[in-house]
Amino acid sequence: MAAVAIIGAGPAGLMAAEVLAEARCAVTVYDRMPSVGRKLLMAGRGGLNLTHSEPLAQFLARYGHAAGRLGPLIEAFPPEALSTWSRGLGQETFVGSSGRVFPKALKASPLLRAWLARLREAGVEFRTRHDLVGWDAGGALRFQAPTGEVFVSPEATILALGGASWPKLGSNGAWVDLLAQAGVGLSALQPANAGFDVGWSELFGDRFAGQPLKGIAVTFGRTRLRGEAMVTRDGLEGGAIYLLSAALREAIAKDGSARVWIDLRPDARVEDLAARLAQQPSHQSAANRLRKGVHLTPLETNLLREAHGKDLPGEPLALAASIKGVPLRLVAIRPIERAISTAGGVRFEAVDDELMLKAKPGVFVAGEMLDWEAPTGGYLLQASFATGRAAARGVLRWLGSS
Ligand SMILES: Cc1cc2nc3c(=O)[nH]c(=O)nc-3n(C[C@H](O)[C@H](O)[C@H](O)COP(=O)(O)OP(=O)(O)OC[C@H]3O[C@@H](n4cnc5c(N)ncnc54)[C@H](O)[C@@H]3O)c2cc1C
């Protein structure tokens, strides 16, 4: 039985373990944390959006520059296969109204529990509290463990170490230095699916942090998206913002800031809003006319003041136009520690088609540590699972030929 070490017990590493155990390899999964799958469990807090039901071509386009390399790997383990796999663990899935796919339990713990039991039954061994710190001169994997340094020399290795967001869940991006020293081509790790700072007034941030802006449209450049955003102490986060986060991050890096426009009433025409505002007595304050005429919430009215200045236009058409286009200047992306996922990582040029590092034969890479990014919507887990399987298939082929 060939001995394979998998480092990182997240979705990518565990999926690789499954494929290799089925192929009768002696699989040991190492993780630096005291327990496994912590980020998967955290994803479960939001319902565990496993994947998305949209047509595959549209699905693959979500991976932007990496779509060409990830495409064949996801086609080999597409969204339907992921749902079937979940069902095999007793977790039936359903398609939510937005096309997103979730397990009916809307959490990760039952799935993870069943999965770990199945892996153990298949012979997979787990070593937690084993922090990979490098390779020794002879090429053995070097771990820091509670008992001291541990050296392991497997026949093949899969690194599935995750990105650098939410480091308290285990993936801290410390592997960047290890792989850079080994001559592996890397793109800088950056926050993805993250919030942005707007620089609200203190009053606004204090009063409205944690409140959602629902049913809005956000426009950046030529892209207009429907969705919702959440006000934070310093800015905005949430679905509509995450969808734009790669483009916004790049615009801020280039120009220092990025301007988005929020339409608070995307289904209403400006003329209709103006007509409703015009029906309100003109002696009323702008805030009252906005509340009574077009049902703006206190958050929405104060957002208009943040963006347009304290004195809102009195004239109905101008006031209506201010609702349809609230200009906000985003000045910084939130730090990677607070992001949902990580952009950057091991460049696809540094791995072969089966995800083996060209600079380290016999060492494969899977999951979020590869250089791809995608919006929220199930794309992150789908690619993590699919690349885990691909790396495992690569190991099998490599073991067969080595
Ligand atoms: C709050 C939140 C919600 C999310 N919700 C969703 C969602 O609903 N849908 C979706 O598709 N995605 C979601 N994601 C993203 C998704 O969870 C990740 O993309 C996915 O977990 C990445 O899988 P991975 O196996 O590559 O890495 P990880 O899950 O990060 O696992 C990597 C593992 O490697 C271990 N490790 C790291 N370095 C070392 C080392 N040196 N030595 C030993 N072990 C090490 C870590 O401890 C960790 O267990 C969410 C993320 C967050 C933070």
Question: Can you characterise this structure?
Answer:
This protein is an alpha+beta fold and 402 residues long. The chain has 2 domains: 3-192 and 342-401, 3-Layer(bba) Sandwich (FAD/NAD(P)-binding domain); 196-333, no CATH class. It contains 15 helices and 20 strands. It has a 7-stranded antiparallel β-sheet with strand order 17-16-13-14-15-12-18. Helix 1 packs parallel to helix 15 (379-401), helix 11 crosses helix 12 (286-294) and helix 11 (270-278) packs across helix 14. Bound molecules: flavin-adenine dinucleotide.
Topology of helices and strands:
Elements: E1 3-7, H1 11-22, E2 26-30, H2 38-45, E3 51-52, H3 56-61, H4 67-75, H5 79-88, E4 93-95, E5 100-103, H6 109-121, E6 125-127, E7 131-135, E8 141-145, E9 148-152, E10 156-159, H7 175-181, E11 186-192, E12 196-197, H8 202-208, E13 212-220, E14 223-231, E15 235-237, H9 239-243, H10 245-255, E16 258-263, H11 270-278, H12 286-294, H13 298-308, H14 316-324, E17 326-330, E18 332-333, E19 341-346, E20 363-365, H15 379-401
Parallel strand pairs: 1-2, 1-10, 2-6, 10-20
Antiparallel strand pairs: 3-5, 4-5, 7-8, 8-9, 11-19, 12-15, 12-18, 13-14, 13-16, 14-15, 16-17
Helix pairs in contact: 1-15, 11-12, 11-14
Residues 7-13, 30-33, 38-40, 42-43, 46, 48-49, 130-132, 160-162, 165-166, 170-171, 174-175, 340-341, 367-368, 378, 380-381, 384 line the site of flavin-adenine dinucleotide (FAD).
